Amino acid sequence: MKYEVKTIHDDYDCEDCGASYAEGYRIYRDGELVHEMKPVAHCLGGDDFKAEDWAIWIIRDLGHDVWIDGWEAAIDTNQDNNQPERTRMSEQTDTPRTDEWETYCDESYYHMWRVRRKNERGFDDGFHVQNGEGARQLVELLNKQDSELTAARAEIEKWEQTACDKLSEVCRQIEKTRLVTEQRDKAWKESAIAVEKEWDAQSIGTLLGMHLGQSIRANIEPKIRELIEQRDRLAEAITSIASGAVYEARCIEIARETLQSLTTNEP
């Protein structure tokens, strides 16, 4: 494997501050461009790289970490997306946090120390302090506060989940109680209807002349059949009587007519 580094430059002329220059690099691996540290010259910021920046990038590309004075070396570039974000050695975890704070000496900004999050690469991201020791202490404090906030959020989410689980259990119990109540009400209504039917049967049995101790349901049907037969016989009798009455009335009417005719024909 062969690495090749080519230097590129950028310049900027400010009417107030004068000219500024920035240096960057293109890194080739076996003849293929794999990374570009694009320089940005500006009087109040920008991106200016040093030889150690491309050296650190190549070492990382080979799978190694670079630590300087207890801090992992950071490369100030907007296009450093080929390598994972890094954490301080004392706080390194299996899953690096991309939103941790970091600091580095910003030579393009009067050699002040820039403090920003590791996932921030904008020109206006972060802020500057005067000395490195204060910047490192500030980074430690900010990361500690972030860690405490993350732990507090996790605890809140845990309690929220517990509350949701309890609420779900209460809802399930309410639904279960509702179903049991509905079934109980249905059974009660069916029982009440059965009792009312039994009372109706008892009333009918009393009207049919049944005595206490007799099976009501077993005797109702024969009694009703007997009543139907009696009704039919009564209807036949009424029809017969009515027919006789009509015949008798007709005979009386004929007799009257005959008598009247005889009376009229006398000399």
A few lines on this structure:
With 267 residues, the chain is an alpha+beta fold. Among the domains are: 128 residues, no CATH class; 51 residues. It has a 3-stranded antiparallel beta sheet with strand order 1-2-3, with no helix packed on it. It has a 3-stranded antiparallel beta sheet with strand order 6-7-8, covered by helices on one side.
Protein architecture, described:
The chain is of the alpha+beta class. The radius of gyration is 55 Å and the shape is rod-shaped. The longest helix has 76 residues. Strand 1 and strand 2 form a beta hairpin. The strands form 3 sheets. A 3-stranded antiparallel sheet has the order 1-2-3, with no helix packed on it. Strands 6-7-8 form a 3-stranded antiparallel sheet, covered by helices on one side. The protein has a two-stranded antiparallel ribbon with strand order 4-5. About 8% of the residues have low confidence. Among the domains are: 128 residues, no CATH class; 51 residues. Helix 2 packs across helix 3. The protein has 3 helices and 8 strands.
As residue ranges, the low-confidence spans are 76-97
- Cα distance, first to last residue? 167 Å
Q: Main beta sheet: strand number and arrangement?
A: 3 strands, antiparallel
Strand order of the largest sheet: 1-2-3
Instruction: Assess the beta-strand content as a share of residues.
Output: 15-25%
Shape: rod-shaped
Counted by DSSP, the helix tally is: 3
Count all strands and give the number: 8
Which structural category fits the helices and strands?
alpha+beta
Query: How helix-rich are the residues, as a percent range?
Result: 40-55%
Mean pLDDT: 79
For the CA atoms, what is the radius of gyration?
55 Å
- Succession of helices and strands: EEEHEEEEEHH
